[in-house]
C-alpha cells in the first residue's frame, strides 16, 4: 500500500474512532465505529490478508453493527450530553492514557529494528487456503474451542434477553 | 510502501482512543463500542505483523478475535438488555448494585 | 484486464517507456465507467420497464406503452422525472445521514460488478476471494438501509428499516451456506475458477451434479430474493402497510437510487446463481478466435442471468406477500437447517466420489425436466383456454 493511501486511510480510521467517543448520539457513535471497522478491513486487504478483511466486513458491518442498532432502538436511547462522571475516575483515566501515549511516543522514536521492512510473501498469502491450513493444523484445538464458545454465546444471548417476567409468553430474543 | 511500524502506530492510536472511550463515557453501549474498537486495533497490529513476518499465524489469531467479538456482542448486548429491563438505565455509574 | 493492458503496452500504444501503474489505473477507471454507466444503471432501468410490462400482462393490463416503441423508453422518462423533482429533506430528519444513505446503498450495488464474470476475459478483477467479496460488499446495503430508515425520523421508515435489516441479516445465513456447496465442488472462491470447474452442458453444471447442490441452488435463489427485498419477501417496502418503507421520506434522485439498486440487484442475484450453479459463461469451443468466443460467452452468460431475472419478475407477479413471522420461520426453521444438510451432504458426496459421480447428474437433470414437464401439464389448462394470439404477439 503506498504511503499516501495509508495516511488517508489512517486519518479516516482515527476520525471514525474519535467519533465513537465524542459523538453525543449513540447511533452516530455506532456509525463512526462502522466507518472505522470498514477502513480497518480495507487496511487488512491492503496488507494481503484478503480473506480476513472481507470476513471483517461481513461480521462487523453486516452482523454486529445491526445487533447494536437493534439494541439502541429497543432501548430508545436519545442524544445525551457528555457526562460529568467521577473526578477520581477521570484522573485515573488521564494517568492511564498518558502512560499509554508515552509508551506510544517511545515506539515512534525507537521503532524495533526487526519489523522495519515487510518480508516477501507468496502470491497466495492471506488466501483462504493458507488461512484454513493454519487454522486446521496449528490451531485446531483453539478452533474447536471457538465453536463451543459461539454455541455458548448463542445460548447465553437467548437466555439473557428472554423476558422471564409475566407477559406474552414467547418473547423475542435479543439476537435477530 | 508504508513500513510495518506505521501500522503499529495507527493501531496504538486506535487502542488509546478506545481506552479513553471506556474511561470517559458512562453509557454502557458506548463503552461496549470502545471495546470493539480496541479489539480491532489489536487485530490491525496482528495483521500488520503477520505481513511483516510473512506468516499466516497472525491472521488466524484475528479470526479467533473476530469470533470472540461476535460471541461477546451477543452476550454483552443480552446483558445490557436485561439490565435495562430491570433498572431502566444504561449509565454505568447507576448500575452499582454489585459494587463493594 | 491486466493482460489486455499489457498487450496494448507491448504493441507500443503508450510510447516506448510508459508508466505502467498509471495505465492500469486508467484501464480500471475506464472499464469501471463502462460497466457502471453502460451496463449496471441502464440494466436497472430496463428491468423496471420489463417488470412493469410482464407484470401488467400477468394481470391483464397494458402497462407502460406510451414512451418510445412499446413504452421501452419509459425508464428514461422516469429517470429524468426523478432527476428534475425537488430533493425534499424533512425538517426533523438527521440531514447528513439522510443525504448519505442512498449513496451507501448505490455503492453496495456497484461494488459487486467488479468481479462479475461476463466472459472468460471480460472481468474487471478476478479476485481469488471473488464470491466472498461479493457477499461482503452486499452486506453494506444493510448499513445504508438502516441509516435511511433511522435518519428519516418517521415511523414507517424506521419500521421498514428494521424489517429490512432483520430480513437481510437472517437470510444472509442460508445464502452464505448455500454458496459453499459450489465452492466445495470447485475448490476455489474465485468467480472464474468456479465457472472453469463446470462445463457448457447442463449435466456438467453444479446445480445438477448431485441432489444437495440442486437443493442448494434453490435455497440460494429464495434467500437472494429475500435479501434483495423482492416479492414475496418485500416487507420492508410493503406499500399497503408502510407506504414505501425506508424510502418513504425520500424524493427525487435519492429515491431513484434506492430503486435502481433494487432492480439492478436482480442482475447480481442472477449472476451469482449462474456463476455458482449454472455454468456461468461456459460455451462449447467452436472457434479459436478469442473475440468470437468472448462474444458467445457474453451472450450465454446474459441469457442465463436474464432468464433468472424473468423468473423473479414472474414470482413477483404471482405470489402474495408473506407475513413477517412466516418470513422468519421460513428462514430459521426451514432454509437454515436445509442449507446445513446441503453443506454436510455435499462434503460427504465429495468424500465418497472424489472425481464426481457419472450417473447422478443425469438423474438430477431428468428430475428437473420432470418437474418442468409436470408444471407445464398443470398449466396446460390455462394455455388451452387462453387466446394464443395474445401470447404470440408480445406487444399490444
Please explain how this structure is put together:
The complex is a heterotrimer of chains A (176), B (100) and C (396). Chain A is mainly α. Among the domains of chain A are: 1-79, Four Helix Bundle (Hemerythrin (Met), subunit A), CATH 1.20.120; 123-163. Chain A has six helices and no strands. Residues 166-176 of chain A have low confidence and may be disordered. With 100 residues, chain B is mainly alpha-helical. Chain B has a domain at 27-92: Helix Hairpins (Orthogonal Bundle). Chain B has three helices and no strands. Chain B has helices at 4-24, 28-53, 57-87. The model of chain B has no long low-confidence stretch (mean pLDDT 83). In chain C, helix 7 packs antiparallel against helix 9 and helix 9 runs antiparallel to helix 11 (252-277). Chain C has helices at residues 2-10, 20-58, 74-84, 95-110, 130-138, 140-151, 155-186, 191-196, 211-227, 239-242, 252-277, 290-318, 324-352, 360-385, 388-392. Chains in contact: A-B, A-C. The interface between A and C is medium-sized, with 22 and 25 residues.
Task: Report mean pLDDT of chain A, rounded to a whole number.
Answer: 78
- The CATH class of the domain at 1-79 in chain A is identified as Mainly Alpha
Task: Indicate the overall shape of chain A.
Answer: globular
- From the structure provided, what is the oligomeric state, counting identical versus distinct chains? heterotrimer
Give the CATH class of the domain at 27-92 in chain B.
Answer: Mainly Alpha
Helix content of chain B: over 70%
- Helical content of chain A, roughly? 55-70%
Amino acid at each position: 500500500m503506498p504511503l499516501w493511501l495509508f495516511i488517508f486511510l489512517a486519518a479516516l480510521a482515527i476520525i471514525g474512532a474519535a467519533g465513537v467517543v465524542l459523538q453525543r448520539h449513540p447511533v452516530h457513535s455506532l456509525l463512526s465505529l462502522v466507518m472505522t471497522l470498514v477502513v480497518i478491513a480495507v487496511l487488512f486487504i491492503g496488507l494481503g490478508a484478503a480473506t480476513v478483511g472481507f470476513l471483517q466486513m461481513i461480521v462487523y458491518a453486516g452482523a454486529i453493527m445491526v445487533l447494536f442498532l437493534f439494541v439502541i432502538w429497543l432501548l430508545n436511547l436519545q442524544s445525551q450530553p457528555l457526562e460529568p462522571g467521577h473526578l477520581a475516575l477521570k484522573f485515573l483515566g488521564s494517568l492511564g492514557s498518558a502512560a499509554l501515549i508515552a509508551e506510544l511516543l517511545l515506539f515512534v522514536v525507537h521503532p524495533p529494528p526487526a519489523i522495519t521492512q515487510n518480508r516477501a510473501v507468496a502470491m497466495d498469502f492471506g488466501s483462504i487456503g493458507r488461512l484454513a491450513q493454519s487454522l486446521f493444523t496449528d490451531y485446531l484445538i483453539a478452533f474447536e474451542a471457538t465453536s463451543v464458545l459461539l454455541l455458548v454465546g448463542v445460548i447465553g444471548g437467548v437466555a439473557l434477553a428472554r423476558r422471564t417476567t409475566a407477559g406474552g409468553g414467547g418473547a423475542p430474543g435479543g439476537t435477530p | 510502501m508504508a513500513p510495518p511500524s506505521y501500522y503499529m502506530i495507527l493501531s496504538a492510536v486506535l487502542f488509546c482512543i478506545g481506552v479513553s472511550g471506556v474511561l470517559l463515557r458512562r453509557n454502557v453501549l458506548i463503552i461496549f463500542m470502545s471495546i470493539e474498537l480496541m479489539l480491532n486495533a489489536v487485530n490491525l497490529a496482528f495483521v500488520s505483523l503477520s505481513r511483516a513476518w510473512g506468516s499466516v499465524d497472525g491472521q488466524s489469531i484475528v479470526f479467533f478475535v473476530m469470533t470472540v467479538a461476535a460471541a461477546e456482542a451477543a452476550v454483552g448486548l443480552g446483558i445490557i438488555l436485561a439490565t435495562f429491563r430491570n433498572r431502566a438505565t444504561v449509565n454505568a455509574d447507576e448500575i452499582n448494585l454489585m459494587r463493594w | 484486464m491486466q493482460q489486455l493492458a499489457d498487450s496494448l503496452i507491448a504493441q507500443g500504444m503508450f510510447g516506448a517507456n510508459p508508466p505502467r501503474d498509471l495505465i492500469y489505473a486508467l484501464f480500471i477507471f475506464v472499464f469501471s465507467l463502462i460497466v457502471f454507466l453502460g451496463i449496471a444503471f441502464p440494466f436497472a432501468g430496463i428491468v423496471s420497464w420489463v417488470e412493469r410490462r410482464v407484470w401488467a400482462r400477468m394481470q391483464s393490463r397494458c402497462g407502460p406503452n406510451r414512451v418510445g416503441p412499446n413504452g421501452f423508453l419509459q425508464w428514461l422518462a422516469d429517470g429524468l422525472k426523478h432527476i428534475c423533482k425537488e430533493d425534499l429533506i424533512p425538517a426533523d430528519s438527521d440531514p447528513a445521514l439522510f443525504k448519505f444513505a442512498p449513496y451507501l446503498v448505490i455503492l453496495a450495488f456497484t461494488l459487486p460488478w467488479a468481479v462479475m464474470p461476463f466472459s472468460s476475459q471480460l472481468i474487471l478483477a478476478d479476485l481469488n476471494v471473488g464470491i466472498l467479496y461479493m457477499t461482503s460488499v452486499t452486506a453494506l446495503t444493510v448499513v445504508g438501509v438502516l441509516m435511511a430508515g433511522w435518519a428519516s425520523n418517521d415511523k414507517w421508515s424506521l419500521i421498514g428499516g428494521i424489517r429490512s435489516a432483520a430480513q437481510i441479516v437472517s437470510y444472509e445465513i442460508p445464502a452464505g451456506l448455500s454458496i459453499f456447496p459450489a465452492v466445495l465442488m470447485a475448490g476455489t472462491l474465485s468467480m472464474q475458477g468456479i465457472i472453469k470447474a463446470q462445463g457448457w452442458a447442463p449435466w456438467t453444471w453444479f446445480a445438477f451434479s448431485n441432489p444437495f447442490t440442486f437443493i442448494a441452488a434453490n435455497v440460494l435463489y429464495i434467500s437472494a430474493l429475500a435479501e434483495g427485498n423482492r416479492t414475496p419477501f418485500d416487507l420492508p417496502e410493503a406499500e399497503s402497510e408502510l407506504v414505501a418503507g425506508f424510502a418513504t421520506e425520500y424524493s427525487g434522485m435519492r429515491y431513484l437510487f434506492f430503486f435502481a439498486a433494487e432492480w439492478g440487484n436482480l442482475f447480481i442475484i442472477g449472476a451469482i446463481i449462474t456463476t455458482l450453479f449454472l455454468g456461468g459463461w461456459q460455451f462449447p469451443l467452436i472457434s479459436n478466435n478469442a473475440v468470437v468466443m468472448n462474444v458467445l460467452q457474453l451472450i450465454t452468460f446474459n441469457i442465463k442471468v436474464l432468464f433468472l431475472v424473468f423468473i423473479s419478475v414472474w414470482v413477483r407477479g404471482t405470489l402474495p406477500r408473506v407475513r413477517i413471522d412466516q418470513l422468519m420461520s421460513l428462514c430459521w426453521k426451514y432454509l437454515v437447517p436445509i442449507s446445513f444438510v446441503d453443506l454436510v451432504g455435499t462434503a460427504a458426496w465429495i468424500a465418497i466420489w472424489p472425481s464426481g459421480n457419472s450417473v447422478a447428474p443425469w438423474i438430477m437433470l431428468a428430475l428437473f425436466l420432470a418437474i418442468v414437464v409436470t408444471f407445464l401439464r398443470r398449466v396446460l389448462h390455462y394455455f388451452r383456454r387462453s387466446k394464443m394470439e395474445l401470447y404470440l404477439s408480445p406487444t399490444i
